Amino acid sequence: MKLYHDPNSRSVRPLVVLEEAGASYDLIPTLLSQGDHLTTAYRALHPLAQLPVLVDGSLTVFESTAICMYLAERFPDRRLAPPTDSPQRGPYYQWCTFVPGSLEPAFGREFQERNGGSVVPGTPALGAVLSVLSEALAERTYLLDSGYSVADAITGTTIALLPKYGVTLSASLRAYVERLRERPATNKAWSLSGL
Length: 195
Ligand SMILES: N[C@@H](CCC(=O)N[C@@H](CS)C(=O)NCC(=O)O)C(=O)O
Known about the structure:
There is one protein chain. With 195 residues, the chain is an alpha+beta fold. The protein folds into 2 domains: 2-78, Glutaredoxin (3-Layer(aba) Sandwich); 89-183, Glutathione S-transferase Yfyf (Class Pi), Chain A, domain 2, CATH 1.20.1050. The chain is built from 8 helices and 4 strands, in the order βαβαββαααααα. It is globular. Bound molecules: glutathione.
């Protein structure tokens, strides 16, 4: 299994999952700053020439959320997703897609507003999105009542990065990041990525 990785990119999310899964994998350094993603060989793996990409034998998967969810199914014994017949499955899908569906657009809005740009109608404010997470995590250890899942790898890694962009986290979100950092696998992946 190979993960194309830049420590300053969304590839940190599947790196956390690979570590949490105890998978054996090769990290293929692909530095955006060096243009490593712009080669013909890399474009053959990702049609938008973006990170991350996972190659598992003859299978290639892009989109960081999809890779994380794929890895949860690929290593079922590690219980990184609730069972398919669990009522937690709905909240699992909800939280796995909350970062790409709500948090990333809200961060984009924040960035546009800071630079005096116009906002895409219907995009929630970053503060509102972070409040939703903050309230959910004030009541539970991880996003799902059933325990840790790849939804936490996706969300926690994103939240942990936000202070680097000048975003202040609530006490609930800071405590969540520290709880995740106490997990040896997550800590290893984050440390490898300067988090
Ligand atoms: N929705 C995609 C977004 C991928 C993405 O924007 N990747 C960034 C790095 S975090 C990238 O490769 N940027 C370089 C570029 O677009 O040229 C995902 O989650 O994988």
